[in-house]
Amino acid sequence: MRAGSRIARLLSLLSRRRIDLFLCSRMTNIRYLCGFTGSDGVLIISPDGVTLVTDGRYAEQSRREVRDAEVLISDRKWTEVARRVRRARPSRVGFESRHLSVELFRILSRGVEEKWVALPDPVEGLRMRKDEGEIRAIEAAAVTASGALLAVLSGGYKGRTESEVAADLEREMKALGAEGTSFRTIVASGPRSAMPHAAPSSARIRGAGPVIIDFGALRGGYCSDETVTLFPSLPPPALGKAYDAVRRAQEEGIRAIRPGIPCRDVDARVRESLDRSGYLKYFVHSTGHGVGLDIHERPSLAPRSKDRLSEGMVVSVEPGVYLPGVGGVRLEDMVRVAGTRGERITYLPKTISRLV
Q1: Which H or E run includes 214?
Q2: What are the residue ranges of helices labelled H in the chain?
Q3: With a threshold of 0.70, does the pTM exceed it?
Q4: 80: which residues sit within 8 A by CB, 6+ positions away?
Q5: What is the end-to-end Cα distance of the chain in Å, rounded?
């Protein structure tokens, strides 16, 4: 799908809201719409044309990357944006209310605040459904990340620190072609694995408890996201039962995925499974989220989600059980919403999580 098609879809959406000029300031949204991968810029979008305003650092890069938009280089970016908005004389100006600062809003809208319309996430709504090129990029990221983990595990991890394992995994992902990591790698062992977002520490991985590894690679700008739970030795009964409960819950969630299903229903299936196992009170986050240019994006698989699954979406399914003072279990796969069902994108068999 060409960037121009994405902009055309956005213009159609804006027209229904009677917006005749839109400011896009979130960089991943700008990349999605025109291909620009720099870290600073504003996209001005109207039926009369599209302009990327950025500074001299990106003159050559924008010339090479930007599609279907004029490029304007200015060392006073926001002054130029304000001038262009005033010159266009729009009746209603839309802006990304979750990403434009209050201070910039005040500067840009001074004297004409009534013309400015807050739009929480119009581009994110378009980004939920991935085209084939986007899905291929996500699949490539997943293959890179999974291959890196297998390489690290083949060298052994018992007796090493969490930080050492995390650093090796991140280096291996880059060695296999990743541009970087999707997020800071999580390696949490023993009782620390009961903290869902524990940062890697100097704690050494022992034989008694689980090791949660949450990791992802970045390829072609797109993220992957996967979590395994490893046991350096046979798990104690409490954690073995928790593992089995999480595995059943994840399977229930993945089986529920198909086009047209409300995202909250997938979350409900996972929670019902954990409730039957007696572990629901130890599940402290949502079931999953969309994955793409950002590691967390719409749709949300959560109890209050208003999103509905459609073909082409890519979501994570990641139930977890966290037993304070004992340890945790989390299993996560990325799933593509296909024509009639969900299809895994992450390829590691979850039996790897029961390594002895």
Answers
A1: strand 211-215
A2: 3-16, 27-34, 59-65, 77-88, 102-109, 122-127, 132-154, 162-175, 237-256, 263-277
A3: yes
A4: 53, 72, 74
A5: 46
Helix (H, G, I), strand (E, B), or coil: what is residue 354?
helix
Distances (CA, A) of 209 to 180, 192, 263, 277, 325: 29, 9, 33, 21, 11
Q: Is residue 143 helix, strand or coil? A: helix
Beta partners for residue 315, in sequence order: 290, 335
Give the pLDDT of the chain (356 residues) as one tens digit per residue: 355 699 999 999 999 999 999 999 999 999 999 999 999 999 999 999 999 999 999 999 999 999 999 999 999 999 999 999 999 999 999 999 999 999 999 999 988 888 999 998 899 999 999 999 999 999 999 999 999 999 999 999 999 999 999 999 999 999 999 999 999 999 999 999 999 999 999 999 987 789 999 999 999 999 999 999 998 777 888 899 999 999 999 999 999 999 999 999 999 999 999 999 999 999 999 999 999 999 999 999 999 999 999 999 999 999 999 999 999 999 999 999 999 999 999 988 776 565 44
